[in-house]
């Protein structure tokens, strides 16, 4: 399940599979009641591949072994796949390379939640891809900072990068329930602080949305005038402006305008 990205590519061409917690709102993807939280899921491991049945925590240093482990892990997913990708940018061709398999997974009923660091999504073509993927049924969010590569499957097993800001091994393959629960909680905290991608009324980021926000910022309109021009509320405008500032790695509206020009949004 790449695209979301359960399979990613690190700079330099090495391919490794790429694409919570208490406090989820019921209207967000995630557990809706106590019976669906990772701490009370039955303690069993559903994946049959022999190399997925060993120690509760196993370090994987070899790239090929990492690929095989993650592929088998994802193939065994039946309910949900959570993915967090650090760093970036990623080439849109790499992201699209798994498009058909991603769509097949979504059609099968697998729930996909993918979290990207802003660096990887601030190019227009990448955000357009993420918007399209969200329209197909994936749940996509962008955070200013995602420190480690993380995959959690069915809240029973996970992959965690040992080092920050990379898609390269070593990884930890984890099926100890207490540790998976901690990964799930960490993912949930990141998810709640991130900006949703899509074209729905509650979404903050999409290629067209960013262009609209950047344009009214460049025009120097007040929030009221900008909101009226875009036919949205001032509250929605401020939410989208905050999302664009984070996406572009800026701290002020003025800096966002400068960086928007640098990244081709103007």
Average predicted local confidence, pLDDT: 82
Order of strands across the main sheet: 3-9-8-7-4-5-6-10
Number of helices: 9
Distance between the termini: 33 Å
Main β-sheet description: 8 strands, mixed
Total number of distinct structural domains: 2
CATH class of the largest domain: Alpha Beta
Structural class: alpha+beta
Write a short abstract of this structure.
With about 270 residues, the protein is α+β, with helices and mostly antiparallel strands. It has helices at about 65-75, 90-95, 100-105, 125-135, 175-195, 205-220, 225-230, 235-245, 255-260, and strands at about 5-10, 15-20, 55-60, 80-85, 110-115, 140-145, 150-155, 155-160, 170-175, 195.
Describe the structure.
- The chain has 266 residues and is an alpha+beta fold.
- It has two domains: 6-196, Endonuclease Chain A (Endonuclease, Chain A, 2-Layer Sandwich); 207-262, Winged helix-like DNA-binding domain superfamily/Winged helix DNA-binding domain (Arc Repressor Mutant, subunit A), CATH 1.10.10.
- The protein has nine helices and ten strands.
- The strands form two sheets. It has an eight-stranded mixed beta sheet with strand order 3-9-8-7-4-5-6-10, with helices on both faces. A two-stranded antiparallel ribbon has the order 1-2.
- A hairpin with a 5-residue loop joins strand 1 and strand 2.
- It starts with 5 loop residues before the first strand and ends with a helix.
- Residues 1-47 have low confidence and may be disordered.
